[in-house]
Each structure stands twice: as structure tokens, then as C-alpha cells.
């Protein structure tokens, strides 16, 4: 069972990471000034949103289950 979960994680992680990398490359394509006009503020907002989402996703992997810390047991 643990092996199945590990295999599922690997398969999904690879697929989702590759999709995310492709989307980021597409955002990079927007830098072509021959095709697009943008302000520094717009670029800042894009990369702030990306960093915030990435930090939140990473935090979900490092959080510990502290739900029992406020409970007393003998």
C-alpha cells in the first residue's frame, strides 16, 4: 500500500510539476515587447503571486500535525 502511494505521488508530482513549469515558461513568453506592453507594477504583481503560491505549497509539506498539542492525555 505504501508503495502504491509512493508511486502515485511520484507520477502526479512529475506531471503537475511539468505542467507548472510549462505555465511559467508561457508567462516568460509575455516578456516579448514586440507583442506585449506591460508596466513594472504588473510584472511585480505576477511574480509576487507566483512566489506566494509557491511558498504556501511548500509550507504544506513542512507543517507538522500540532492538533494534539492543546490536549491533555495520561
Overview of the molecule:
This protein is mostly helical and 74 residues long. The chain has a domain at 2-26 and 37-61. Helices cover 69% and strands 0% of the residues. The protein has two helices and no strands. It has helices at residues 2-29, 40-62. The longest helix is centred in the N-terminal third of the chain and has 28 residues, at 2-29. The chain is elongated and about 70 Å long. It starts with a helix and ends in a 12-residue tail after the last helix. The mean pLDDT is 92.
Mean pLDDT: 92
- Secondary-structure element pattern, one letter each: HH
SSE class: mainly alpha
Number of extended strands: 0
In short:
The protein has 74 residues and is mostly helical.
List the topology elements.
Elements: H1 2-29, H2 40-62
List the main descriptive attributes of the protein structure presented here.
74 residues; mainly alpha; 2 helices; 69% helix; 0% strand; elongated
